[in-house]
Amino acid sequence: MRFRLTPRETSFYDMFAASADNIVTGSKLLMELLGADSSARTEISERMRAAEHAGDDATHAIFHQLNSSFITPFDREDIYSLASSLDDIMDFMEEAVDLVVLYQIEELPKGVEQQIEVLARAAELTAEAMPNLRTMTNLTEYWIEVNRLENQADQIHRKLLAHLFNGKYDAIEVLKLKQIVDVLEEAADAFEHVANTVETIAVKES
């Protein structure tokens, strides 16, 4: 790690960790959605919306700190990118839950549970990794595993699309379900963006 002569603003580390912990909360709500009947989904959606708002607040706090700090722990553009990508994850997860409720989906297609399981694992890994930004240690396995999970998510997504277009569903239902599985795939992509940003930061700081 590079030797620095100037002090650094360290509150960013805590804020990134809090943002990642909130994403774990979101992933748990997605898991709840799988086993919930239609009457319980509205309440889950409300809790997810509250978690998404908490994520927005965390992101705004990071941006405010970034704009008011003279010295930052790593490059400003990387701080912005990391905060934005973490925020994107919550946005996509909240959107997926909201669509399930708005479209009044009775039954999610087989395979969505695998998508959500991948997101839940990526959320756990991300939350475990964020505190390690402080020391830039034990991060390599994190971004390798998240990239592997994203590849797994791609495969699940393709299988889901094939299932949706096999003629079992009518055209309107296909459009609804495709939008949901696409948004979940975007969440997986956003986890990979976070991991790639962490890798970029670690390389610069080495």
UniProtKB/TrEMBL annotation:
Pfam families (UniProt xref): PhoU_div
Designated name of the protein: Pit accessory protein
Gene3D superfamilies: Phosphate transport system protein phou homolog 2, domain 2
Record lineage: Bacteria, Bacillati, Actinomycetota, Actinomycetes, Kitasatosporales
Homology family: Belongs to the UPF0111 family.
